[in-house]
Amino acid sequence: MGTSNHLDLLRGEYLDLQERYAQLQQQYAILQARVEPDGSPDTGCFAGQLFDTMRNLFEHHSFSDITIRLGENELKCHKFLLTTRSYYWNDLENRDFIEISGVTLEAFHVVYRWLYTDSLPRSASQFETRLLQEVCQVAFRFHFGALQSRCVQLLKTRVDVENCVSLFEFADMEDIAELRDYCSAVVAAHWKDFKPEKFAQLSAVSLLRLLKKNSLHVLHSIIQLNREDVLLLYFIENDGKISNVVNTVDEQGLSPLELSLVCGRINIASQLLQKNASCNAVDQSGYSILMRMIDKGDAVACEFLAKAGADLNFVHAKTGSTILHRIACANMNRSAMAQWINSWLERIDLDSVDIQGRTALLQCVIYGNTELAKFLLRSGADVIKADNEGKTALFITLFDRCDLDLSEEIVKYGGDPVVNHMVHGDSLLHISVRKDNCEATRFLLEHQASVDVGNNENITPLEIAVKQNNLAIVNLLLDYNASVKLSRSNDDSLLHEVISKGTEMLNVFAVKCKDINWSFSDALSYALNTKALDCAKIIVSVGGQVEEKDSYGNSLLIQRILLSDDAGASFLLELGADHSAKDSKERTCLELAALHGLINTLRIICGLGVNINERSDRGSGYTVLVHTLSEGHYDCAALLVSLGCDLESVTLDGSYVQTMLHHFIDVVDEQAAVFLIESGCDGDAARVPRDSNNSIKETPIHRAVSAQMNKAVAALVTSKANLSVQDSQGRTACHIAVQERNHDALSELLKANDVGFLSIRDKFGHTPFSQALFSKQHMLATAMINRQPHVALQTNANGENLLHISVKSNDLESVLFLLSNSNDAARAVDGTGRNAIHYAADVDNELILRNLLLVGCDVNVTANDGSTALHVAVRGNRPHHTEILLENGADANQVDGRHENALLIAVRHGSLDCVKVLLSHSSVDGLAVNKNGQSALHLCAVLTTEKTQSRTSSIEMCEILLRREAQSLPEKIFSAYVDLRDVDGNTALMLAYMVGNGDVCRCLLRYGATMGARNADGATIFTYETPTRLLLFRLLDSLEREPRWSDGDVCDCGVRFSITVRKHHCRHCGRLVCAKCSEVTMPIAKFGEEKRVRVCSLCVEVLTKGVR
Q: Which residues lie in coiled coils (predicted)?
């Protein structure tokens, strides 16, 4: 339909284009004449004048010179116009009129107007198809060429599905090839939509021409249209090749003969047979025409073909089926087909089989074609023959079709062999029983089927019926005397199967089979094995023995207990079975019942008065409770406990004397241990070594924690076991939980009301908290803090808490943990008054110091010796720590016990880096002195290379100190600073000289230090005794300018100055001398002194001789 619609759209578009083309041609011609059809012509040109003249002639008939007679009507016309439009009239010179017949006035009026105006009616209502056909006839009759083309194009636009056949006939009659071809194409496009009646009025010749042009199979089309007249023309036309033509097939594989039969054209079929059409032709699938007619249920066609000589014993090559098989399987018109073939059965092989080995009778039965089946039975068809699957007709009617009436017919013609036929080793009776088909079973038994026949596995129908638990069939077979005694070795298998089906089946056999020996068989044991206690009661009632034993000598009761059959054992005890019996390993029923968790059996045995505290292993083992708990039978254990079973059961177990609780901790059976604890056993009972030399005792709580038995720990805590008990290493259970990293156990321990064990120390001095902290078990430590916050403040013998120790150990992780969990730890002090920030200042980890400051540690807190954190930092030469402390408000001028501030301490300890940091802060007092009156210069002067840290030079430190003060102090104050004396009267220069620190001496001299300053002992650098005076000479030699003059009352030679003994100064070294000590005068060139000046004897020697 999609293709047809598309063709319709294309056709419509094509017709629109044709109409537009005709209009464009007309408009183009008019434009050439410069005149519009309905407008006034352009008389300015010759063509326009001619067109205007022709219009006037049409309207007024001026100059008319000939008359057209149309019947009784006459029309004026002009000869020149007629000869112009057509060559049909070439003899008009001597004629005054012409006569036209066979044309209506309406049609000729259209032609007449076209002669003068070259126009046709535009409206389809004014110019109907009928009128257009007449005009077209006139155009072709009188050779109006231009009008012919216009009419053909207009007719093509009018062609549709309804009129295409009639227009084709019109075009064929008028021999208009263009229109005929166009109509033919339309017919071909819609061929399937046409009915034969559409072509009924079409002439045989036209129809044959149409079919030949548009049909691939002309003969098939003729048959479909049922046109025998066309068929005759076709036969005449193809007489030389008629035999091939009548046997040609179409796209669907249909031959003309088959098509005629399908269409019911018997007359045409007869004519085809006369022309040698084959009635046994096969299609591509290999089926004959007769088979296909059978499939359609066309008895008339089948009879026609049979009489025409079709092969009634034709066999399909692939399937092996005959026409009988096809009729048996066919669903169309079964009765008529059966009646038809019945008349031809004598000429057909009734027992021919297809590739599946099926006869026509089998096919009839399979497809339910009862009528044909009865015809075949009466005609002697083989009823025993089976197909490839071994199925006979009776098999199918009984089991597949369930048709007892037809089965009766088959048995009637087949007898006993049919009833007892074997299919793959099974008789029909076996099959009917296996299918639970009671009706079929009854049918077979009634028709003498063998009831005790065995199949290829020697199984009888009765055994199958029992296995399928079909009581109805079992009763039926036993009613027909089916035998219970079997020829196989295992005669009890049938009884086992009966028991497995329940009491109803067992009752049937108990009632109807009196020859079964129930006491001899193992039916009772099997019934107990399958939990069929109701069946067991029945077996006992008919003779089964309760006390029967197996090959090991175990009674049925022992067997049931060993198989953990609580219900079976209880059943036997209720029937009076002996509960005092023992198994082959001398175990009692009580012990076995406890071991296998048979609570009902255990309850019954305990109710019979047995000793529930009897020990296993001949009195040296635990009670039966241990077996019950070991196997997880807690309901049985609860029963034993409720009856007073011993929970402790102290006994020897390996190398220890211990309770049952310790045994279950040994085997890591936590559930059993929890059960004992919750049941009230002694949770503090220690296990004791059998060796008297080993005094180690272990309690359940320690062992449970070590074994990760946390539920047992929880139970012990709940039962108020002693949690503070210590082992040989002084550890509590909490210590072990931390050591084993057992968070769950610790959580359970901390749930105790009394957590005093958190303060207990082991032999290494660790509490559980400290152990957790130093082993980085912070989750465990957090749990302890949450339970008892003050554990973080625990201290050692030195008064150091855990935070102090962590800081000293440079353990940032522990520090952060303690700070996050306890703010009090940061404020606590040790025995020396130092807190955590003092320790942090001496540890090479800035993060620890910063975190302590973040939590609010006092940066200026002092220890007992007056030291602050800043003092500690500069002692250790930690510049980064110093900077951090200063940034956070550390007072650099706070003094310690020596009255020394941070700068003095840094210089004393040679901490050059810290000195640089301190001097970079303007708030640091660089002029401070200690209690000995010593400034930073004094302390720096006595520094030697061995005393400075990191082998730094004291000269560098001295230079920094002097430079900083020189920049900030006035000259006089700076001079006083450089020559400041300590309590002993020593200046920095004097101290440096005394320790031989020449570099510091030279640095001080560069900054103007006085060389001749005298200390409290009256000594100067000139009089101080040293092993050699080389340093003094070098200092004098290094002078670059005259130093400041010293003052005093005594000369270095011992002379005291007075009015008579004047003071003099050496212009080279600046010391105070008398006249005798400075007798020489000389110029000092290095000072730029050209005149002679007083110089001491020592300087004279240096200046004249130099340093040796």
A: 7-34
